[in-house]
Amino acid sequence: MGEVFDGRVDYIANYQNPSLGGLDALLNYPLSITMKNIWAWKSADMYSIRSTIDYERTKFTDMDALVVFTDNHDNKRFLNINNDRKALQASLVFSIFAQGIPCVYYGSEQNYGGGDDPFNREQLWTNMIQTTDTY
């Protein structure tokens, strides 16, 4: 199945445009969607990362100011799409080492698999488990 970002890179890149008083950092949704297509949906290959990053380099003024993430507070969690914890871990490792600002959304280390908002905002502090394989 997979997700499509269909050219909205230009739209997001405008928010980083210094001539418009650009933002300091932006969530890198195009790369996040590419990551989910590779590891969660299994509908793309690793060359998609290179294609996405190469295209972003032509649009964004500062690739280092893009936040690289697997899960966040606005979308279904990775494990809601695909319960493959090894694939989640691969996506998390990539997000930590990719160019940009790494962000690991709380609960990913707990293997939370919440769906659409607000179900992707599970309580953490009342049931923190430090023995999950992802933790």
What does this structure look like?
- The protein is mainly alpha-helical and about 140 residues long.
- It has one domain (about 10-110).
- It has five helices and three strands, in the order αβααβααβ.
- The chain has helices at about 10-15, 30-40, 45-55, 80, 85-95; strands spanning about 25, 65-70, 100-105.
- Strands 1-2-3 form a three-stranded parallel β-sheet.
- It is globular and about 45 Å long.
Write the layout of secondary structure elements.
Elements: H1 9-13, E1 26-27, H2 29-40, H3 47-57, E2 66-69, H4 78-81, H5 85-97, E3 101-103
Parallel strand pairs: 1-2, 2-3
Give a quick set of tags describing it.
7% strand; globular; 5 helices; mainly alpha; single chain; 135 residues; 3-stranded parallel beta sheet; 33% helix
Largest pleated sheet: 3 strands, parallel
Q: Name the structural class.
A: mainly alpha
The backbone outline, from C-alpha atoms, is globular
Strand order of the largest sheet: 1-2-3
Short description:
With 135 residues, the chain is mainly α.
